[in-house]
Structure to design on (643 residues):
């Protein structure tokens, strides 16, 4: 889930670089660029058919699909943005890696993935076309393409800003070199290339940033030393507890109640993002069989839950150890560093020549994995869900691959255009978090009801999705027009903007679900034959009883649940 | 047989890249051993450990997933 406020605020920073790179650092970065391009060139020979180009031949192992699934989400803005959020809000930011990951990713693997995989849909809008019909596919396809490009452009621009602030690089240089590199390897090798590079980037992100928590914990004197130092700094325990401060809106730095965290974030937003965002689901759909596809998000869930080690912990360490206080964005004053600079500052604190290059490569790799995810998902949805049904009826496989390659180029051009567009209208970036909730939350209800309730009808799918989206936009507009409505939507006068995002998503999900159910009751459902392989109770999911226990997805899902419970108890 | 079975595995690429990075970082650490950079905890030589770790991990992956070793 993107933290775009990071991007917006980055623009307010000064232009003095935080870090200077040495020759070994530059060499490491250059080798990285050469490697990702080399992988694209190597994989070109394997991406000839549409199944190969758009779905990586559906022959990825569970591990490759799982790591790619997570890596597409692990963008540079995620890393730096959530480290910044941790400095600001404390360990509460870890909820976005724990409650926002465990239930939803497991649910995707155990419940939703069989429908996506068995239906043989090419995309989430493709599944909606099979389940509901053309109108729902068109609405979700167009909104997804729009969102993907806008997100890609904004991330691209934000990354360029970060490179300018951190390294002093020219913005245009960063935008063009990074985006053209991603475009080159995705055009050449399609989803094969995107997935291979995402797995590579996953490793680089870890080895690049891991120095910070290891050395940070040594310097802080372990967890107890860290807690003590934070307490000395902020004179409060709010920053090191996950749940115990969420009893009231005013009792924690985020201004969120536990109901919003549990139902809004852990429920609607997380289930919507992990369960319906094609950007990540495309990776699981590329798995070689259903078992691997179901395991992919479960494997990803394990790694997602340890990502706080390289994101949340550096934020807490920054709060405890940096000899100066970071400030909110826009704070006037010479030489002040902002929250958003906490991760680069911690890298610079511990990493000398070579290690620093690896750390910066990790940030670049994060950006590229996120962008490659956007581009490959955009090319698939555009080709299968917009171009083929509405713009050109040519259905030859070779033609679709050519269109997919051109769509990737088009996606890059549109993303670059979006990046420059954002420079003219910077306030748009403030609204990105809201834009995601406009589309993701209602889509979650549409997909879930479609999968679990046979009675849901074609018209209900469309009108429910439209009603959910419109209501979400309406709530957002109401708060912008009159800020008093925030207290109404988030159910408390003490609620802050984060709470508004969570509750708005919850309401729009409920409205979408309500409209879908009501319209379904007054319209004709599809026949059982039409719903074969698409709905619970009408889909033959292959039994796994013949498999040894350790090969069953549910076994590993229980492991995630135990891991999750231990983390919640430890940091309660 | 699937195309994926004919490809060089992604783990091989990861191994090669990490091993190269290990060599670079280890070399820099050795050259700068007596004059460590002015970073916090430089006395622990984290670059030396990181270089060895990357070289070992990358070497292991490269060896294990070397094309000739695969069936």
């Amino acid at each position: 889930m993107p933290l775009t406020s990071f991007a917006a605020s980055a623009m307010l920073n000064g232009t003095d670089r935080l870090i200077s790179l040495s020759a070994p650092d530059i060499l490491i970065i250059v080798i990285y660029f050469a490697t990702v391009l080399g992988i694209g060139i190597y994989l070109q020979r394997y991406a000839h058919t549409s199944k190969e180009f758009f779905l990586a031949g559906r022959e990825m192992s569970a591990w490759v699909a799982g790591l790619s699934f997570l890596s597409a989400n692990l963008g540079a803005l995620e890393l730096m943005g959530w480290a910044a959020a941790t400095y600001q809000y404390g360990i509460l930011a870890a909820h976005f890696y724990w409650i926002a990951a465990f239930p939803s990713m497991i649910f995707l693997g155990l419940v939703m993935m069989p429908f996506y995989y068995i239906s043989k849909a090419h995309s989430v809008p493709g599944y909606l076309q099979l389940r509901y019909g053309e109108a729902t596919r068109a609405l979700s396809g167009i909104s997804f393409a729009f969102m993907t490009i806008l997100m890609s452009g904004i991330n691209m621009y934000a990354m360029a800003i970060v490179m300018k602030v951190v390294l002093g690089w020219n913005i245009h240089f960063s935008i063009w070199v990074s985006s053209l590199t991603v475009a080159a390897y995705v055009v050449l090798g399609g989803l094969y290339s995107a997935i291979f590079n995402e797995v590579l980037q996953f490793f680089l992100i870890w080895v690049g940033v891991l120095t910070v928590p290891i050395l940070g914990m040594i310097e802080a004197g372990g967890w107890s030393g860290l807690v003590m130092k934070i307490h000395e700094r902020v004179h409060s325990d709010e920053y090191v507890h996950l749940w115990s401060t969420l009893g009231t809106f005013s009792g924690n730095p985020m201004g969120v109640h536990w109901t919003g965290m549990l139902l809004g974030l852990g429920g609607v937003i997380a289930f919507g993002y992990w369960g319906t965002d094609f950007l990540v689901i495309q990776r699981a759909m590329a798995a070689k069989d259903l078992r691997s596809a179901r395991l992919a998000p479960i494997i990803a869930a394990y790694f997602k839950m340890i990502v706080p080690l390289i994101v949340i912990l550096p934020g807490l360490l920054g709060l405890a150890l940096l000899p100066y206080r970071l400030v909110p964005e826009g704070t006037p004053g010479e030489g002040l560093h902002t929250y958003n600079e906490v991760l680069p500052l911690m890298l610079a604190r511990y990493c000398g020549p070579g290690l620093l290059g690896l750390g910066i490569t990790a940030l670049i790799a994060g950006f590229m994995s996120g962008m490659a995810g956007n581009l490959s998902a955009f090319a698939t949805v555009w080709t299968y869900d917009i171009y083929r049904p509405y713009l050109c009826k040519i259905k030859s496989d070779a033609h679709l691959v050519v269109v997919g390659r051109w769509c990737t180029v088009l996606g890059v051009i549109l993303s670059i255009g979006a990046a420059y567009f954002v420079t003219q209208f910077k306030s748009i970036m403030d609204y990105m978090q809201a834009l995601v909730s406009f589309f993701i939350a209602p889509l979650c209800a549409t997909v879930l009801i479609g999968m679990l309730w046979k009675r849901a009808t074609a018209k209900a799918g469309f009108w429910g999705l439209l009603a959910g989206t419109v209501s979400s936009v309406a709530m957002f507009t109401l708060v912008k027009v009159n800020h008093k409505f925030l207290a109404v939507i988030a159910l408390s006068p003490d609620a802050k903007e984060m709470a508004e995002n969570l509750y708005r998503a919850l309401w729009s999900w409920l409205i979408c679900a309500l409209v879908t159910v009501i319209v379904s009751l007054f319209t004709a459902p599809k026949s059982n034959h039409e719903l074969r392989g698409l709905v619970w109770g009408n889909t033959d999911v292959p039994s796994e009883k013949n498999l040894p226990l350790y090969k069953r997805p549910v076994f590993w899902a229980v492991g995630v649940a135990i891991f999750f419970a231990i983390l919640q108890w430890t940091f309660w | 047989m699937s195309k994926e079975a004919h490809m060089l595995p992604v783990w091989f690429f990861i191994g090669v890249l990490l091993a190269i990075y290990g060599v670079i970082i280890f070399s820099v650490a050795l050259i700068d051993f007596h004059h460590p950079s002015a970073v916090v905890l430089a006395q622990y030589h984290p670059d030396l450990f990181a270089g060895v770790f990357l070289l070992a991990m990358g070497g292991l992956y490269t060896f294990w997933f070397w094309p000739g070793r695969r069936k």
User: Anything to note?
Assistant: Chain B has a mean pLDDT of 87. The longest helix of chain B spans residues 10-31. Residues 7-69 of chain B form one domain. Residues 2 and 27 of chain B are 41 Å apart (CA to CA).
